[in-house]
């Protein structure tokens, strides 16, 4: 049974102190031959625990901080067996919620040493998770250090560590924002005065959170700011010590935050600022290669450089982020969403790669099945005098896309058709019986027939290796 604070006088505390004495005895036995100094520290810790048990007024946090020293010494040996034993004891201290801010910093420094040494990496990740999830004492630079530790383990060479660290990072990023939601709910009815926010100060990014933000919101602000920085291939301000980051992983984290914690961005003007000024600028920058690239260009025209060529994993995640921005934050980003929607429509151009057009169709489908969203498009854009006719463009582009599927490639003199869209099994239909194709080796299935082109309802692809786009 966990206890958050108090003294050593309760029955629970007495049993806990007795258990810690046994743990230190085990560490002492394990280290007495190779590490006599750790054995001595353990024995001193046992004496302190006995004295604390005899003095009911001793604060629990005080005594726990004192016995952390031999455990840290044990971890510094980098001996796998001893490290595993010491981390197990540290984890129990966390589970009992007997670690304060000072102890958390001490433990974080120890875990950092183990991370850099590559010792018990999965156990280190488990310890970080417990440290941050069992209470809310870890804030500021200590929290940043724990997050960086997990990020760095995500980019190691061991597949088990990579997967575990990736899951840990996702969990902790969500945790940071969950704390903000809980903090907002706690203060919702207690603070009625609307605070002033100086957005000019936010235009220069730094490692200091805006003054008006409460502790949990400040941590989330700095973390989200740095996630955008990292995806943009810039140096972070708060997550000091990052050595590697991929855009795909960063975009996934941004997508997760934007999907699950929209209330934070509507509640805090500082987060709304990050959304408008940083996230939208990043999205437009990453959109650039997708807009410039053409699938078919004349030989005498120089194509985009390899660096500007659209990259499917990034484009896919980028469009997911854009889809969320439009669906959840349209009221905050009216002008920005106008740009995004215009860019998505351009993705359907016939000279775009097939996969790019497919991604755009998926995003447009998610939006067109929401009547209220379409209504807002009309109100904000099509019905305005000097705005883009977004709804009209969406309808026209979808119509043009459908028509392009029924253009006979042979009539155009192009073996691949428009935008290479003939990879789908289409062409002259087989013999028809009651509106269904029949013939040797043909399974009856519904489809579309127009202008001499047969388009099956279910596309079939010939087996073989995938071709690069």
UniProtKB/TrEMBL annotation:
UniProt keyword Ribosomal protein present: no
Superkingdom of the organism of origin: Eukaryota
GO biological process, one term: protein transport
Cleaved signal peptide residues: none
Every Mon2/Sec7/BIG1-like HUS domain range: 217-390
Sequence ranges assigned to domain Mon2/Sec7/BIG1-like dimerisation and cyclophilin-binding in this UniProt record: 14-184
Cross-referenced Pfam families: DCB, Sec7-like_HUS
Keywords: Protein transport, Transport
TM stretches of this protein: none
Family in the record: Belongs to the MON2 family.
The protein's name in its UniProt record: Protein MON2 homolog
Organism, as annotated: Ladona fulva (Scarce chaser dragonfly)
């Amino acid at each position: 049974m966990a206890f958050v604070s108090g003294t050593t006088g309760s029955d629970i505390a007495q049993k806990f102190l007795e258990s810690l004495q046994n743990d230190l005895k085990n560490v002492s036995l394990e280290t007495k031959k190779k590490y006599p100094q750790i054995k001595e520290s353990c024995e001193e810790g046992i004496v302190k625990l006995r004295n604390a048990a005899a003095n009911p007024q001793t604060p629990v946090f005080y005594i726990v901080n004192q016995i952390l020293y031999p455990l840290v010494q044990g971890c510094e040996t980098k001996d796998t067996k001893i490290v595993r034993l010491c981390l197990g004891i540290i984890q129990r201290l966390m589970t009992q919620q007997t670690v304060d801010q000072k102890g958390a910093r001490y433990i974080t420094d120890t875990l950092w040493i183990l991370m850099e040494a590559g010792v018990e990496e999965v156990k280190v990740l488990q310890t970080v998770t417990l440290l941050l999830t069992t209470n809310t004492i870890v804030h500021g630079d200590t929290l940043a250090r724990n997050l960086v530790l997990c990020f760095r383990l995500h980019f190691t060479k061991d597949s088990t560590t990579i997967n575990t660290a990736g899951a840990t990072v996702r969990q902790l990023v969500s945790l940071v924002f969950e704390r903000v939601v809980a903090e907002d709910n706690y203060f919702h009815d207690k603070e009625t005065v609307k605070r002033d926010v100086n957005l000019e100060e936010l235009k220069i990014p730094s490692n200091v959170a805006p003054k008006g933000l409460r502790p949990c919101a400040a941590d989330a602000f700095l973390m989200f700011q740095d996630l955008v920085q990292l995806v943009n291939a810039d140096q972070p301000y708060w997550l000091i010590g990052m050595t590697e980051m991929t855009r795909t992983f960063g975009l996934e984290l941004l997508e997760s935050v934007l999907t699950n914690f929209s209330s934070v961005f509507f509640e805090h003007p500082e987060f709304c600022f990050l959304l408008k000024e940083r996230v939208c600028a990043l999205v437009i920058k990453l959109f650039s290669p997708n807009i410039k690239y053409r699938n078919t260009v004349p030989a005498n025209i120089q194509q985009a450089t390899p660096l500007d060529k659209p990259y499917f994993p990034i484009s896919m995640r980028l469009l997911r982020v854009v889809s969320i921005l439009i669906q959840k934050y349209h009221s905050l980003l009216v002008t920005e969403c106008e740009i995004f929607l215009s860019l998505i429509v351009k993705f359907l151009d016939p000279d775009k790669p097939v996969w790019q057009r497919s991604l755009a169709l998926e995003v447009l489908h998610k939006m067109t099945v929401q009547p209220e969203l379409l209504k807002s498009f009309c109100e904000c854009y099509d019905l305005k005098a000097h705005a883009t006719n977004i709804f009209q463009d969406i309808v026209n582009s979808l119509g043009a896309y459908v028509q392009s599927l029924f253009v006979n490639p042979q009539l155009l003199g192009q073996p691949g058709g428009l935008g290479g869209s003939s990879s789908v099994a289409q062409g002259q239909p087989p013999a028809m019986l009651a509106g269904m194709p029949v013939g040797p080796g043909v399974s009856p299935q519904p489809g579309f027939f127009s202008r001499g082109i047969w388009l099956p309802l279910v596309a079939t692809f010939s087996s073989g290796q995938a071709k690069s786009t």
